[in-house]
Amino acid sequence: MKTILRTENVVKNFSGLVAVRDLSFEMAERNIHALIGPNGSGKTTTINMITGAFPVTSGRIFYGDTEISTMPTHQIARLGIGRTFQNLKLFTSMTVMENLMVGGHQMMPSGILRFLIDPATSRKEEKQVEEKAKQVLDFIGMYDLKDEKVSSLPYGRQKMTELGRALMMDPKLLFLDEPAAGLNPSERVEFVNIMLKTFDLGIDLFLIEHNMDVVMNICSRITVLNFGAKIAEGTPDEIKNNDEVIKAYLGNRYQSEKA
Ligand SMILES: Nc1ncnc2c1ncn2[C@@H]1O[C@H](COP(=O)(O)OP(=O)(O)OP(=O)(O)O)[C@@H](O)[C@H]1O
Ligand SMILES: [Mg+2]
C-alpha cells in the first residue's frame, strides 16, 4: 500500500523539555489513522510539526515522496495537508460563511499576490470562493446557519464550522485535533458521520482523539504516544490488548475477553 505520510526520527524540544522524542511512523493512503496517548504526550506537537506550525528540532517528515519538514506552513497547506485546531481558531465575531471564505481565500492565487490582481479577477475569485463555501456548508449540514455569528452558535456547531473551514482548502490529508472533545453524544454521532463522509470524498484522515468509542470504531490504525515516544502501533484490536498501552493510557476497560 502507498504511504501518504512518514516521519523519520522526529524530535521536538521546547527549551529543555522533550515534547516528541525520536518519532517514526507511517500512514498508508486511504486510511483513517489515529494518534492517541495521555495528556501532554506530544500529540498536538506532532501535528504542529507535520503542518509546519513548529519547526522540527531534528528528524524528517515526508508527504508522499516530498520532504515537508523544511517547508513553511502555507506551502504545506498547498500540497494538500489541512487541519483543525484543538482550541478552535475561528473568527468568532464573523459569520459562519465569512469564516469559510477566509479559509477559501488562503488557497487562491491572489490570496498571496493580491496586489498583482486586477479587480475583475478578484471579483470572479470571490464568487468562486462563495460558491465553494455554499457547497461545503451544504456538505456539513450548516447551510441554514451560514449568516449566524460564530459566537452565537453552540460549541458543536462551532467545531463543525472549523471542519468546514479546513475543507475549503481542498485537503487530501486532513488532521483533526480532538474532533469529538466537548461534544454531546448526538453531536458526536453527527461529527463522526461527517468525518466518514469526508473520508468517502477521498480525503484521508489523521485524528487525535481521547474518545475511544470514536477511535476504535472508525480508525484502521492507531499510533500511541507516551511522554513523547511511540509505545505502540497497530489495529484497534491490537491496541486495546497491548499491555503497555493499557498501563500507560487505556486501562483494561477496552480489553477483549481472553479466550
Ligand atoms: N509551544 C510550546 N512551548 C513549550 N512547551 C510546549 C509547547 N507546546 C506544547 N508544549 C509542551 O509539550 C508537551 C506536549 O504537549 P502537546 O500539546 O503536544 O500534548 P498533547 O498530547 O496534545 O496533550 P493533550 O491531550 O492534553 O492535548 C507538554 O509538556 C506541553 O506542555
Ligand atoms: Mg493536544
Walk me through the structure.
It contains 10 helices and 10 strands. Strands 6-7-8-3-9-10 form a 6-stranded mixed beta sheet, sandwiched between helices. 39% of the residues lie in helices and 24% in strands. It has one domain: 3-Layer(aba) Sandwich (Rossmann fold). The protein has 259 residues and is of the alpha/beta class. Strand 4 (58-63) and strand 5 (66-67) form a beta hairpin. The structure holds adenosine-5'-triphosphate and magnesium ion. Magnesium ion binds next to helix 1. Keywords: ATP-binding, Nucleotide-binding, Transport. InterPro entries: AAA+_ATPase (IPR003593), ABC_AA/LPS_Transport (IPR051120), ABC_transporter-like_ATP-bd (IPR003439), BCA_ABC_TP_C (IPR032823), P-loop_NTPase (IPR027417). It holds the Pfam family ABC_tran.
> What compounds are bound to the protein?
adenosine-5'-triphosphate, magnesium ion
Our Rg estimate from Cα atoms comes to: 19 Å
The CATH class, by name, is: Alpha Beta
Which strand order do you get reading across the main beta sheet?
A: 6-7-8-3-9-10
Q: Please tell me the total number of domains.
A: 1
Low-confidence stretches: none
CATH architecture: 3-Layer(aba) Sandwich
| Shape verdict | globular
Q: What is the CATH topology descriptor? A: Rossmann fold
How many β-strand runs?
10
Report strand %: 15-25%
CATH superfamily: P-loop containing nucleotide triphosphate hydrolases
Q: What is the end-to-end distance? A: 32 Å
Helix content: 25-40%
Sheet with the most strands, sense and barrel status: 6 strands, mixed
Helical run tally: 10
Oligomerization status of the protein chains: single chain
The pLDDT mean sits at 91
Q: Provide the succession of SSEs.
A: EEEHEEHEHHHHEHEHEEHH
Q: Structural class, from secondary structure content?
A: alpha/beta
